[in-house]
Amino acid sequence: MTECFADKEGLTRPVGESEADAFVRGICFKTGPPRLLGAELEWLVHDAHDPTRPVAPHRLATAAERVGALPLRSVFTVEPGGQLEFSSQPARSLTECVEDLSADLALARPVLRELDLVLAGYGKEPWCEPPRVRSNSRYNAMEIYYDRINGAGRNVMCRTASVQVCVDAGEEDPGPQWYRRRWRLAHQLGAVLSAAFANSPLHLGRPSGWRSSRQACYARMDPGRTLAPVDDLDPRAAWAEYALDANVMFIRSEGEPWAVQRGLALRQWTRTGLPRPATTDDVAYHLTTLFPPIRPRGHLELRMIDAQPGDDGWIVPLAVTAALFDDPSAAETALLAVKGLGDMPSAQPPPRNSLWRRAARHGMSDPELHAAAAVCFAAAREALPRLGARRAVLDAVDEFTARYVDRGRCPADDLLDKVAGGEVRP
After folding, report:
1. Quick check: bond before 51 cis, omega within 30?
2. For residue 133, what are the contacts with CB-CB under 8 A and spacing of at least 6?
3. pLDDT value for 336
């Protein structure tokens, strides 16, 4: 992936509104023939013997330190609630991406087992409400900002995990891989991916009423930074408008704490220069605090997929998404399959609109989403050999399709069945 903040020159120079707008437009979509792929795998950390028991902060800290010391290929980070994240380097193929992340996870899991811990693939913590265990200027300020709205932000920060797939933005000129076409596909296909891979149906061990409680949390957060931009503008213009209209969370400083803001849009800050002049670096950092379902970072970061069960469950959403974006035939089939899903008028953009809320609440039991998913998974499966996918990846997609998509189910339904049958209890 092309990192949108790769050019660091001049970042400390004060900027006005027009300069901030131009900066955002210049970095949000890096166009060219799609050739790179990436994934960011977030994991909850559970006790190996009793997954329903909260893991003490000192155990999470030890786990993070031990895993962080490994010779990993990916970028390793620790989220506010102690979730562990492995972010792949930009890969030239699906096979390379899978192999690199698999190698890192193979290194990390034995280290965690020595600590009686395991990586747990759920979109949201099903059994308890872990507190924030990481304290730094960013997370301290984010928590204050979110808590002024409701508890959804704290839930997302500390209690959720995902499989985020990163694909190139696409080509500048109209055609099958036009960046505008891929941007629109992402917002319609995103609801199908959210439904098919929904895996967060519990709150404190009981059904929450949502197949993806994680997506429900995002829909309740600060709408100016978690909803999608308007779709009636050129994507560059839409994203720039969205970013400048979003409220600034906090203003960074060398001292502690960072000044949490209330009702200060980036546009207002760049116009007034108060409480201090905004710099290009401030604009770039502001973009890291925006969390819509699809975030343009030079490439497209798809953020709507819950973390998946099993050691290798993450491979299926990575493979399916890659195929539906980067194989021209599969992309065309997917676009036709999902086109009608977005036709129903809605006063709200994703993930608050009717389609995305249905995906989060019902998963694959929604008939229209199920029908679209069946077409998209079939198109992805046909395309994967053309992308050089290996037999293990094809088998994983086949198994997931037979177990879930063909039966109108998603991983959340397995967990709901276990709770209903008394197999697991909080």
Report:
1. no
2. 57, 60, 61, 80, 81, 82, 158
3. 96
